[in-house]
Amino acid sequence: MAMVVKNNMSAVMTLGVLNKNSSALAKSLEKVSTGMKVNSAADDNSGFAIAERMQVRVRALDQADQNTQNGANMLKVAEGSVSSTVDILRTMKEKAINAANDTNTDTDRSIIQKELDQYIDQIDDNALVTYNGKTLVDGSKMSKGNATRTALTNASLDAKTTGATALVDLQNRNGESLNILTTDKITVSYVIQGKNYSKEIDIDSVKTLNDVLTEAIEPYTMDSDNPQVRAAYDTYNGSVNSATAIYNAAASSANSIYNSTEASAKETYNTKVNSATTTYTQAISDADATTTTYSTHTGITLSAAMSYATGDVSTHSSQYAINSAILSEHPESDTAYWNSVSAMYASLGLSMNYSIYSSSASENSNNAIAAQTAYTTFSTRLSTLKSEAQSDYDSAVSSAATERDNKISTAASTRNVAVAAAKTALNSAISAAIEVLNNDLDAIGDLIPYKLTMEASNIVGKDAAGNDVYTADKGTALTITAAAAGEKFQLAGFTFNVTDANGQIKKSVNAVLDNFTESIRALNASKDNSITFQVDAKANQAIKIGLTDMRSGALGLKGSDGRTLSLATQENANAAVNVLDNALKKALDQQTDIGSIASRLEQTSSNLHIARDNVLASESTIRDADMAKEMTEYTKNNILLQASQSMLAQANQSSSGVLSLLQ
Hints:
The protein is an alpha+beta fold. Helices cover about 60% and strands about 10% of the residues. It has three domains: about 35-145 and about 530-625, CATH 1.20.1330.10; about 145-215 and about 445-525, no CATH class; about 250-445, no CATH class. The chain contains twelve helices and 15 strands. The strands form six sheets. The protein has a four-stranded antiparallel β-sheet with strand order 8-11-3-13, with helices on one face. Strands 5-4-12 form a three-stranded antiparallel β-sheet, with helices on both faces. A two-stranded antiparallel ribbon has the order 1-2. It is elongated. The mean pLDDT is about 85. Flagellin is the subunit protein which polymerizes to form the filaments of bacterial flagella. It comes from Selenomonas ruminantium.
């Protein structure tokens, strides 16, 4: 091998190996220090991308799990509030049952009422519980839905029972008679807006369930003895009657003006027609009196001239006919005839021959034609005069009719405008009266909620989504429905109580007849304010829950005016038991909904843990380093680096041998 100084190829090659070993050692050091075999896209571009996506998925699942746990904690707060309300309602039912016992005096019941009022206030406080500043069960977190109306369904009565069924004919579900007698009495009690209403009704052989319901709500309708209600309707009727009287007066005045104008127009028309008739009659008379001259007749009327002309036409035509007949029978060649005629006329001192007779015939013909021409002239003149009179008459009558019709049309338009304006004023007055009436009724307490209805069907009503709600077994059942949808019209409770002639409660009857349970709860219309829990790593993978209103008003325990459920009398306390049962059902339904979602969130959290662990395991397979293997690789690369460093030193020393040649 040649000894060179400029290019020490051994050193250069050894340096390359040194750099390679240094790079390998650096990578091994990175893997050992990070514990990952893929630290960048340069290590494994596809593996790095997959691992990064998996890491994003893991972190998203961790956040979803945290969301799930936070949601569960929120629901625990809501459930705690509802659970407290359920406990309070249990206690309130105990108090109502206590108040329904006649061992208590009215003073005792007033004390129980105070305690009940405090419980109702506490229920409102429970509904205001918050989580992270958000109130949960005050109705602000309801799902989207339409307003619903209360429906109380009785599935214990015979399936054939309707509102038209007589009380004495009522049967249970097995078809057995309830044995309601005409000597019994039935008490109907119900609660709306926190107020108790009750009425005892006599039973007869034809009185139906609808009759009982109508009698029960009758004291709170328009025809009742309620002075406030009567005054409100009296005010309304007075306003409507006054507005109607004003309208009638305006319409009558407009019609009177129209009728007067119409009569005047017709009278003017008749006057002008009469005048035209007179003028026409005179014109006809004048035409008939017009004089002329005919032949030797002077100063004669056209009709007379026509008569003379007609006579002359007849005379000359007849004579001409005779002349023509003789001339035809005896032509000029009949000399014997004409000679005899000439001799006869000569004996009389007259001249006559064929020529003279022929000239006479021509003269008769000409005279007949002249008379006919004169007749035509006279007739045409008379007709023209009468036609002109008729035309003038028709023109005058037509002009008068047009004038009459225009006046009547204008009067009709004026009347219609006036009547329409009066009608508009009437409608405005009626609308204002209705608004005043509604305001008055609202101030009284609103009559609409008391108009309950009863219907037999397997459909009890519609839920907030607008879907039909069926009875539990989809069989026909009797349902009492509130007057309208919304909490304002909520029927909080309804009670039938049948007693016999001695005042004893007929328990077996009431167990069936009074078994009305709430099948649809009254809710106000709501936008979608439900709570959304994002429980997965992708969009739209969420759980939604709507929390209903757990305030006392929504549970039927308090009215909008602050009036609370009353235990003041035994009847009120008895009715309150059913109200509290319905309130408990509402609270338990809400508690069940919350519990089911909470349980689902627990399952969701468990599923998220499993998914996270599996994704993390997959990422570990791609990215995590085998430390034993990497330490072995690191040791190897470290030794190789040291060896290459030593060999580079030896290669650098090989060039120094050239110096010995230069000494």
